[in-house]
Amino acid sequence: MVELWTAYREYESLDLVKKLYQSKHGRDLSTTKALKITSSFMQGRNYMEAAENSDYSIRPLLLYYGIQSMSRGLILFLSTEKADIRSSHGLALGNIQERAANNSLTDLTFRISNGTFKELVESTRNRTYFYENQSTINCHIDYDKLPDDYQFTLNEVLCGVPVLKPFVHAWLNSEPDCFQVLRIDGPNPQDEHKRISYSVKGNLNDATIERLGFVEYERHFNDNPSGRQITMITSPEVKRIVSHRPGNQFGFQLRFIASARQNEATINDISCAYALSHFLSTLCRYHPTVWMGILMGREHNSLYPTAYRAIEFIESNYLRMLLEHLEPNNF
After folding, report:
1. Strand, coil or helix: what is 183?
2. What predicted TM-score, i.e. pTM, was given to this entire model?
3. From CA 243, how far away is CA 269, in angstroms rounded?
């Protein structure tokens, strides 16, 4: 993490951020906007450092303040049009208290509005970067633009973070729809249907494949010589692929295909992490009885390992995701 924070600090320098902006966009950055960018990044880092040294009773709140400040800096840096951004979070949550009481938190709904979340999705082009068999970025996926009335659930957020899969399984006694992708091929330029082949680990039935968002597809199942069960899904549809972060010591990543609704847009990885942090901070700030019950082993405490690992995931990976969008790359 030290080298990541060192790279990040360049965006806290007024002179350096102007040079970096000129290099990325080919135009000058005004001092007024540069100060907004550097102030957001500096404040974000201070919040993150404060969160790291805080008790878990308030840690999600400080972490989210850091995530939001860093995201505001990213949005302003990536945009050549915006001089400022809205102060609102850009996300509204359903009734947490009611969902917790009914043991249905995963059905909790996020509704987007004008604010940081929506601007984060738009400024990053709803793009997720990948490290395909090497330690540097060499591919990406762009998802569709989100409609103004877009909604998604906590379950979709959890499915977008593969490292949480065993903890969610322990919490709910059922695995989230998130499966390792061994290989992606296509589309072939000669194929008029632009079909893509997804080689997915495991034996997936039609109901599971449809929960992954597929509408038009062909399914083939086989046991390969190594004994691994593989489901081949061939479809013209670009599906939600997420990465297992962090990668191994060489920076390689495992890819997973995750739950998404049929014929609807989805969110990229940095926006998914933002939404997860927003949920945890809302639980912490506005529902302290529920949050403290989780921490102290009272009501809803089976959620504790998932929440703890989610906080660890955000602290370890949001900075890396942010730098992937800040730093120049050809992918």
Report:
1. strand
2. 0.90
3. 8
